Amino acid sequence: MKKRGLFIIAALFLVSLNLRMGIASISPVLDTISHDLHLSNGVVSWLTAIPVICMGAFAFFSAALGSRFGLEKTIAACLVLIGIATCTRAFAHSALLLLLSAFFLGIGLAIAGPLVSGYIKKTFPNRIGMMIGVYSVGMGIGASLSAGLMIPLQKSLHHSWQLALASWTLFAVIAFLAWLPLVKKRVKVKQAAPRFQLPFKSKKAWIFTLIFGLQSGVFYCMSTWLAPAAHSIGLSQEQSGVLVTLFTFIQMLFSFIIPSLADIYKNDKAWLAGSTFFVLIGLLSIVYGLSNLWLATIVIAIGLGGLFPLALALPLNATSSSSEASSWTAMMQGVGYMLGGIIPAIAGWLRDFIAYDKQVFVLMIVLCLLLFIALLGWGKGQMEEQTSRS
After folding, report:
1. The domain at 2-185+194-377 falls in which architecture?
2. How many angstroms separate the CA atoms of 16 and 10, rounded?
3. Buried b (16+ CB within 10 A) or exposed e, 9-35
4. CB neighbours (10 Å) of residue 230?
5. What is the pTM of this model?
6. For residue range 62-88, what is the model confidence (pLDDT) as tens digits?
7. pLDDT tens digits for 202-232?
């Protein structure tokens, strides 16, 4: 049982590697894509906005699909879709095909995300914080690898950003092969299918959704525009790439440390507020020149490292079963990712029309302030709302 548990953790880690690669790998070559395909900042920003919006729109179907076909089988199908969408980027010599790959990638990510959370709830009910940390670290490593190695990979592949983007298909294949034994070993038990119902009437669920959407907006805005914004401020393209790698590495590291600590010292609201404070301090340091860009980016990464896994764990701690956790997560990610997905596009539009190098960071400051307001709206009445549910 212990050996099987370690195998499941390894398989979950490999799955999670693929849940940000297709988005993070775009950022370092965003300017090159824009130049080669003659796209404005507003248009090219949709390459990250589309999959995030899809992660919201299609998340609503995840719990129903998981209930019908099983968590393991549905996650395996998502890995296939992610791999195919990533692979098609090798032939993306037009904006249309590239945007289509982003769309289908987003569908795979949308359905897989809530189901992985439900699987963690089902398999590791007493280790939610630690497993969300493993899940987040996997996504962080995937984002870090794909962002940090894109430029060297592009150069080694005859300067083809298409082949460099498509090369991340390999990780989807590896994850699928690792996950396949879990699909085959799933025990079929005859029972009534759990009723799937999104918690639209729950104030607590809506607060979780707003928190998730705002932190998602900050994260994807930072992931998409950090390199171009740093280049505008004065860093070289290589330095900007290193800055993105530093950001993703620090964010990944603290995405394990902070939720693990939150598992011991239980106060979700305090941890979320503290993480938001770190992000806000880092952003203010950039806008007002209080510290250099490298240090400020580290501070932002620490805060975002805590925000995502803490927000992701909220419905897992508030529900009593894996199906309920999947439905709450589906709503949270569904609405939240649609909210967060439009933020990078808004930032791209601001870069096109406002002649100020730090406009993206000002936008994220506004989002952090809204996040604090959402946390203030999370009162003790909502903390106890779920106790009577079963």
Report:
1. Up-down Bundle (1.20)
2. 10
3. bebbbbbbbbbbbbbbbbbbbbbbbbe
4. 24
5. 0.77
6. 878 888 899 999 999 999 999 999 999
7. 888 999 999 999 999 999 899 888 888 888 8
